[in-house]
Amino acid sequence: MSRPRKEIHLAAHFPGVNNTTVWSDPAAGSHIEFDSFRHFARTAERARFDFLFLAEGLRLREQGGEIYDLDVMGRPDTFTVLAALSAVTDRLGLAGTINSTFNEPFEVARQFATLDHLSGGRAAWNVVTSWDAFTGENFRRGGFLAEADRYRRAERFLRAAWTLFDSWRGDEILADKASGRFLTAPGPGAFTHRDDHFDIAGHFPVPRSPQGRPVIFQAGDSNEGREFAAATADAIFSRHGTLEAGKAFYADVKGRLARYGRTPESLKVLPAATFVLGDTDEDARERAAVVRRQQVSGQTAIKLLEQVWNRDLSGYDPDGPLPEEDPRVGTDHIARGRASVRMTRDPLAVARQWRELAAEKNLSIRELMIEVGARQTFVGSPRTVADAIDELVQADASDGFILVPHLTPGGLDVFADTVVPLLQERGAFRTEYSGTTLREHLGLPTS
């Protein structure tokens, strides 16, 4: 007997500042004006997406002592933007990244509980850690934590926040109606939480929201990150968008749930995905090639190469060959505030691989950076893309996708108008919201 068709979960990531975004395109708009956020959110809600997602950067990245070129657009405060969007949307979930390394549980819990009430139960928290002392310089505590300690603090932070969310259970009496007097301690919102990171007690001022607790997202791909998600998260982001890699990640993370008394349905796996659409597959491939060149200008190509070579390469021609000198290995990196995976691995091995690829295909620096950094997950006609998304979800390579368009704010429109109807026709995606909270959209129980 074949199993029922899985319902696809779709979300939209407001791209902000990264090397997916083509901010130089004439069709691109502001990354900070509210009209851009509003347009993007309303498109996602019109398409019946589960949620909109905002990333967060706590410090502008630097390279060679200067602000990195993709950060000049600015990074507005997550809570402020999501609260404003709650007033111009009705059903769309509102997910924000908030750091657990340089914040405190009471403040973050109060902000998320407030957002959850303002939105009628549509808030979500992407719990992240911060790895570098460069970011820590913005904060009084400063410094940084080793990876295991970061996740330990994040786990303690989240459990402290849960204590605060759960301190209002909905069955307390706020006042004695007969006497007209309010109850005294312990009363509503009373909490105590003590562990090796936090020692807090008091009264939490915000009652429980329609969905109980905000939905919890987690983005770690390391073993510690996957374990943290299995123990605590409602959804996990993933870098693995291909069939085989996606299935392996999906099986690994879902296989960890049982030891925490959880079922596979209690955690959604949602990779990020970019897309380029065309009237035909060939048209889409041609457009994708143009987009890739827009994403990687000559200047950007040099910056990306510097992140591996760990040297100032500004004197090199992006249309010329790779440097003959090897990457500089060491802990003093040319890029600051950017958790570059390539720089934390073996840069000499990466350089060898890139030299071999460049020689094989006769690639310049810019062409190589385009080749190794191609960021289009789905390229094709709307039907081709709809088929690919459905195939990956039904094959348990994911439960859906978080779409990252390359244009802000209108890049999501064509997907909403062409791909979504095709997914709806085959019964793989909702035609209307059946619930009001984000937990209902994701098929999660009220916590």
UniProtKB/TrEMBL annotation:
Keyword Zinc-finger carried by entry: no
CDD domains noted in UniProt: Nitrilotriacetate_monoxgenase
Keyword Glycoprotein: no
Cited NCBIfam families: FMN_nitrolo
Chain positions recorded as FMN binding sites: T97, Y151, S222
Protein name per the record: F420-dependent methylene-tetrahydromethanopterin reductase
Record key words, sorted: Flavoprotein, FMN, Monooxygenase, Oxidoreductase
Record Gene3D superfamilies: Luciferase-like domain
Taxonomic superkingdom: Bacteria
Signal sequence residues: none
Family, similarity comment: Belongs to the NtaA/SnaA/DszA monooxygenase family.
InterPro entries: Diverse_substr_monoxygenases, Luciferase-like_dom, Luciferase-like_sf, NTA_MOA
Domain Luciferase-like residues, every copy: 25-395
